[in-house]
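Fold these two proteins, one after the other.
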Amino acid sequence: MDVYNPVINISWPMPGVFGISIVLGIIFAVLVIYLVLYFFRLKDQARIHNYQLFLFQAKRRGLSNFQIKILRNMSAYLKLANPRDLINNAALFESSLDDFTEYIKRENEDKESITDIIRDIAVIHKKIFSRGSYPKPFESMSDLEDSEVIYLTDDAGNIFPGKVAGRGSG
């Protein structure tokens, strides 16, 4: 069916239901694609923002680049959406230590680098969760605070993190 316009002397074809539904479908598809891309861009911006805040908090607490990489790998291993959760939650940090050290040992690292990583995990815990002033060097058991993470070695040369739960009479 054609529509005649007497002013311009042009006859235009009138779209049918099928033509209108195709045009509206295309507009709807473009809108959905735009909204999905916008959603992913917002998620990516939130991820970048969380990571920048994580770096800011880690640097403010005096962590080195290697220690920040360890924390980032711990958060990736735990599949955390926000790596700041690892810095803000001591229970989450401490609960992930066993699994993370087993993961490191499975990755066929040499014993020296495993020792360095576990030593740095103890330092990270001290720097992040210790409320005291600048830490003094460890000289005896009395220098350790309760719930402090340390690294231990056994007679076989195995290395693992430990947490001070208390002190005995000796």
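Now the second one:
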Amino acid sequence: MATIKFYYLHCHNSEESRNTSAGDELELQIVADGNAQTHRRSRMWNGRRWDLGIQVDFNNEVEVILRELDNPRAGDPHDDLGRIIISPSELDGPFTFTGHGVSYELQWGPVT
């Protein structure tokens, strides 16, 4: 079994900050070995850092999904900003999500 810790998500370039000062409403989902572990939300904008402190145990893989939440009822569906699959041999980040023109850096590493 491997254990990793997700330290932070840093916003270099948000989607909504280009259009409004409200920033992005993000949803971060972490799925370990096919089982949803964590579901967190936060508002982000350029330059902001979201400290996570999430520790995950897994055997085969961890999938991390980042979405920007919009208003599907008003015809504006949620935006998938990216996904990463982490194996036990990849215990050090970072990874940068770049979907829909954003730049969000996710930093993780082994638990020490």
